[in-house]
Amino acid sequence: MNNKTSLPQLLLEPSPDWKDYALLDSGGGKTLERFGPYVLIRPRPQAIWQPSLPKDAWNEAHAVLVEEKQEYGGRWTMLKPMEKAWEMRYRKLRFEAQLSSSRHVGVFPEQASHWDWLMGRIQNAGKKPFRLLNLFGYSGLATLAAASAGAEVTHVDSSKHAISWANYNMRLSGLEDKPVRWIAEDALKFVQREARRGNTYHGIVMDPPKFGRGSSGEVWDFFKRMPELLRACRAILANDADFIILTAYAITASAIVTRQAVEEIVGSAGQFECGELVTIEQSAGHILSHALFTRWNA
């Protein structure tokens, strides 16, 4: 059979330059991770092997997340005294981590490779101003990275709490004077309105959840609403656009899906990287996959 389709190479993309984060060990369906001064145990079903470190190392944890029935939910059980919120750093970026009712703590360490990549693209693009749209911006670390590199950023999240958190992180990083617009709104509605206004962006960062609800009760379902969002993003991409980053968590799909999704916006021209964001365990070198991604640049 003559297969003319060019099959893309899938990448495993780690973020090796962390000092305030480490995947210390994993196994038995759990991870042992250091976030700044604190060690946390979180559930991770894919860690089907046995832990490599002795129990004494796991007994040093400050808190463990106990999963509950609802998706992504859980409750933290405190094992040692710790602050509910604390400061962390990545390179020159400073931000607040905190225990929440989900398994997350305000930072996705595996995304640091995205931050490095987009900072390099913005600094080398030569566009003044470089307009970046960060959809589903959460606690704002991609916004911090882009603003520190000189971009004008529009940060969109349906959660007002997330907007406040991201704004606080900007102040922690000393970036409060940078040009950032904070938009508490459904991502699709905002992009559609920007298209009607004729506004365009040189870079788009998208980190959509699998499922969620907006501040006004809008339901987000990745597979149902992502096609419409992709069509809307095509209308706001500048003629001289530089890049798109799409990250997808907790979906039953391949990284090829994220690449083909980005192709819906830009076509097949330009350069694509797609694969999985991973962390590498310190104890025995196990690799944990966290998300699918595609990065495109012109």
Order of helices and strands: EEEEHEEEEHEHEHEHEEEHEHEE
List the strand order in the largest sheet.
1-16-17-15-12-9-10-11
Residues in β-strands, percent: 25-35%
Number of helices: 7
Distance between the amino and carboxyl termini: 33 Å
**CATH fold group of the largest domain:** Rossmann fold
Low-confidence stretches: none
Report the CATH architecture of the largest domain. Answer: 3-Layer(aba) Sandwich
Number of E-state strands? 17
User: Any idea of the CATH class of the largest domain?
Assistant: Alpha Beta
What is the helix fraction of residues, given as a range? 25-40%
Computed Rg: 19 Å
- Tell me, briefly, the overall form: globular
Q: What's the CATH H-level superfamily name of the largest domain?
A: Vaccinia Virus protein VP39
Q: Major β-sheet, in short?
A: 8 strands, mixed
Count of the domains: 2
List the helices and strands and how they pair.
Layout: E1 10-13, E2 21-27, E3 30-35, E4 38-43, H1 55-58, E5 63-67, E6 74-78, E7 85-90, E8 93-98, H2 112-125, E9 130-135, H3 141-148, E10 151-157, H4 160-172, E11 180-184, H5 187-197, E12 203-206, E13 211-213, E14 219-221, H6 222-236, E15 243-249, H7 255-266, E16 271-280, E17 287-297
Parallel strand pairs: 1-16, 4-5, 9-10, 9-12, 10-11, 12-15
Antiparallel strand pairs: 2-3, 3-4, 5-6, 7-8, 13-14, 15-17, 16-17
